[in-house]
Amino acid sequence: MAKMVVSLSVVPLGTGSPSVSKYVARVTEIIKSSGLKYKTGAGFTDIEMDSYQQLADLLGKIEEALIGMGVQRISITIKIDRRLDKELHIEEKIAKAEGL
């Protein structure tokens, strides 16, 4: 039962290269392995979650992996859409926004 949709953008800094695709791919692997439902977009990944603890756990795993890859600084942008009265689903939000 997803009570929030978290939009997450992770930007590794201090990598020595303008390309960040290998770091983004690693973050996507971590999200996928979490078992949470997600949808990757051009700039953000939307993830269905039930609690802030799930978000904290995920961020910890992402940070640990990027540090292991030699990243010296990480910029994370998070947007949270939280509902207390009903479930939230990525597909429903997209369908409503597109008028479907």
TrEMBL record:
<dbReference type="Pfam" id="PF01910">
    <property type="entry name" value="Thiamine_BP"/>
</dbReference>
<dbReference type="InterPro" id="IPR051614">
    <property type="entry name" value="UPF0045_domain"/>
</dbReference>
<protein>
    <recommendedName>
        <fullName>Thiamine-binding protein domain-containing protein</fullName>
    </recommendedName>
</protein>
<dbReference type="InterPro" id="IPR002767">
    <property type="entry name" value="Thiamine_BP"/>
</dbReference>
<dbReference type="InterPro" id="IPR029756">
    <property type="entry name" value="MTH1187/YkoF-like"/>
</dbReference>
<comment type="similarity">
    <text>Belongs to the UPF0045 family.</text>
</comment>
<feature type="domain" description="Thiamine-binding protein">
    <location>
        <begin position="6"/>
        <end position="97"/>
    </location>
</feature>
